[in-house]
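Sequence design from tokenized structure. All designs in this work follow the same two-part layout: the structure record, then the generated sequence. An example of the structure record is given first.
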């Protein structure tokens, strides 16, 4: 039942996502560099400070926080064997026909408009630097976090494209 008195915990959600991502080994400076490298060829005036600011703005968006919390928790719960079968095996084996990881990620990629969809498709295939290191780590369940990273890069790239258009 929807509780209209409930106040959305913006700060707690932001802190949760940032802390969990850092625990998982995400380096936000590296993420900013990935974004910068991919966008500076289109926007020669782009600076790293700008990219860091846009990344920070994006990380505060509720649409991002909601989808990121679900994604991060599903990886963790699968890792800790709390998820029921057959869902656990589907997630653990990153089954190609699953697609819920991409669905959650696409909502994030589209925060700043549909240009994010195109960007997401690109990063999902290219698996640039930091994203790739998650996709190929066999020790952890990474089914959701790699798409989450690609989506964040895609969303910020979309924001940059609009700002400089
Ligand atoms: Mg995935």
């Amino acid at each position: 039942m929807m509780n209209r008195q409930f106040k959305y915990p913006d700060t707690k959600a932001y802190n949760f996502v940032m802390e969990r991502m850092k625990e998982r080994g995400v380096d936000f400076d590296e993420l900013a560099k990935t974004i910068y490298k991919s966008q500076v060829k289109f926007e020669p005036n782009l600076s790293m400070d700008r990219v860091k600011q846009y990344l920070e703005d994006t990380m505060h968006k509720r649409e991002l926080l909601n989808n990121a919390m679900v994604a991060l928790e599903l990886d963790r719960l699968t890792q800790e064997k709390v998820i029921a079968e057959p869902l656990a095996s589907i997630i653990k084996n990153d089954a190609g026909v699953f697609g819920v990881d991409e669905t959650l990620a696409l909502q994030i990629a589209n925060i700043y408009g549909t240009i994010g969809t195109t960007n997401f498709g690109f990063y999902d295939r290219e698996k640039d630097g930091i994203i790739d290191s998650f996709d190929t780590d066999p020790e952890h369940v990474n089914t959701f976090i790699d798409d989450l990273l690609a989506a964040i890069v895609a969303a910020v790239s979309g924001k940059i494209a609009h700002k400089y258009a």
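The pocket of magnesium ion is lined by residues 94, 101, 143, 146-147 (CB under 6 Å). We note this feature because it recurs in several other targets discussed in the main text.
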